[in-house]
Specification:
- α8 packs parallel to α9 and α13 packs parallel to α14.
- The chain is α/β, with parallel strands linked by helices.
- The mean pLDDT is about 95.
Length: about 450
Amino acid sequence: MKQRNIHIVSLGCPKNLIDSEVMAAILSENNYRIVSQAHDADVILINTCAFILPAKEESIDEILRLAQLKKERAAVKLVVTGCLPQRYGKSLSDALPEVDLFLGTHEVPEITRYVDHLFQREASRNRSVIHKPRFLMDAGHPRLLSTPFYRAYLKIAEGCSNRCAYCVIPDLRGRARSRPVEDILKEAQNLAARGVKELILTAQDTTAYGKTLKGKPTLSVLLKQLVAVDGIEWIRLLYAYPTGLSRELLEIIAGEDKICKYIDIPVQHIDNAILQAMNRRGDSALIRKVMANARAIIPQVALRTSVIVGFPGETPAKSQRLLSFIREARFDHLGAFKYSREEGTAAAGLPRQVSDRVKDARRNAIMEEQAVISWEINRSLLGTDAKVLVEGTSAVAEYPYVGRLARQAPDIDGVTYLKGSNLVPGDFVECRITGCDEYDLYAAIDPAN
């Protein structure tokens, strides 16, 4: 078979990005050449997100945008994979006739077979292949990293069993299932051998890690072994649910130099009635206790969270309670999201839905408050010394380089602009914080200059 060009677009979260990297590697090992421009492709593959309405809209807009290329080159094949097909199944075939093939989240390891079939004479007329979401990657699956060479996401589990009332993830990704410790260590070693220095642990719920495995190894057990991997300098923890942040886990984060003193804790709300309606585990007292423990056990810890505004039944008083909590908690980083009424979820049928206008106002109020908090926290860092991971050049003349502190996760937090010379991406440098704004920091290698 002749070699064909394929262009891959990955939408959504880092977990989806890993699936895209696996598909890219499998395809590149099987007579497909990955190209950066859609105009050069024989196949365009879009790995979609369908978590909430804005994600679905982005996915559909991207599909329609790239489908325009078929008007210029009718032979181009358009493949849509991931969460959108998994959620809506064969109904997409009628809604999006421009697409040649829809594949669900389970079909990742067989991507070459399905794409090959599009070019065969006996190609099936079945444009949708959607199975139950049971795929769980392992270290044997290749990955063509799309992140900078010095950092990579490491998926330690797949799926979720929490069944939050607003969330469709269990339907898109299946029930929670964890990878064995030995398998994760093998992939970490492989990534380190490729030059990766920062591992970002990800899953739908990282603190639920190990519950489906024999012997039930915990995230604490996994971290103790990951820190021994040569070449890895930073290990970052995302999606840590409050109920899973045990004292043992916090002490391990505090005691291991390689583990970033950074925890992403999605709390979603603080009002107990809303938390109960969301079917969230734990109440406001537990959230406050976990945060207090984290700050007591891990000096200088940076805490990130996400909250949902406008959940059904969120009265002005409950909204004010959330805003007051954000003032009290003083998170280093925060994302506020408007509740999205998703069909098939328990929350979609709840009474007292909140209007979009009110959601916008409540989100704006939270983000305005967080901007002040973030600026005050950044200002408190002025004059302190820190280790920065250099990521590249910047457009700021006085600070020609850009990087990140351990307290800054890629893509979701601010960055640190660096004043220095001859800095190399992937290197760690010691610097002093000399300036700040609401979300970003400014630092100098030699503060005297």
